[in-house]
């Protein structure tokens, strides 16, 4: 296998906010030698209420910026972007771009036949998971619920708020009533709520976190392209946001185990701001 010089370049991971940290954690676990450029579009979250045209525009801007950072691969750590923009933007960039929908759908059909999907309003409306699941297994039944309050609650660090538990009960009730056996966490923010979801769901329901499966796919792609980093030395992770870097750092500390250094970036000028 030929290993290219670009193998030392970082992987780009992007989301609207801290949700993509669930993908970042999987990169650190499955690909510990890889450096990462993480971007959170916090100035424009939540994406779930945005129009498809807005989402596509944002993704183009982020990917152009990531090209300037010399990433060797981009992972859309955002189901809304994956559902609405992936197929459109792929043709315009000369680097592999991976999304969450297909890996998540394929994992779900391997777990059960009555599959629930919780996601943002935009992802649910796109029906991307319904199509991907039914293409993978025409016998599967899919039940979707949009959960618009989850992302703002997580970004506000209100996971342990009693209100969040009540909201989760309300969202999951129809899925429990139809007897799902599998639940796809169709937004990268939602694994942060796994503890709460487990309280509400029957014990036999399997949770599917697409983050682990998209990183598995990324690992296979890097192998095929000879771009996997086998470099000795410590891999780095650099954090960038479009909004308030201090706020992102404080919220993300819960999952990173430390306070990250976060820089603010202007997507329009591709220049770092102080």
UniProtKB/TrEMBL annotation:
Q: Check the record and name the SUPFAM superfamilies matching this protein.
A: Aspartate/glutamate racemase (SSF53681)
Membrane-traversing stretches: none
Q: What does this protein do?
A: Provides the (R)-glutamate required for cell wall biosynthesis.
* Family membership noted in the UniProt record: Belongs to the aspartate/glutamate racemases family.
Q: Which UniProt keywords apply?
A: Cell shape, Cell wall biogenesis/degradation, Isomerase, Peptidoglycan synthesis
Q: Where is the active site?
A: 78 (proton donor/acceptor), 187 (proton donor/acceptor)
- Name recorded for this polypeptide: Glutamate racemase
Q: In which pathway does it act?
A: Cell wall biogenesis; peptidoglycan biosynthesis
Q: Which molecular-function annotation in GO is an example for this chain?
A: glutamate racemase activity
- A matching Pfam family: Asp_Glu_race
GO annotation, biological process: cell wall organization; peptidoglycan biosynthetic process; regulation of cell shape
Q: What is its EC number?
A: 5.1.1.3
- Family annotation (PANTHER family): GLUTAMATE RACEMASE
Carries keyword Transcription? no
Which residues are noted in the entry as substrate-binding? 15-16, 47-48, 79-80, 188-189
According to its UniProt record, which reaction does this protein catalyse?
L-glutamate = D-glutamate
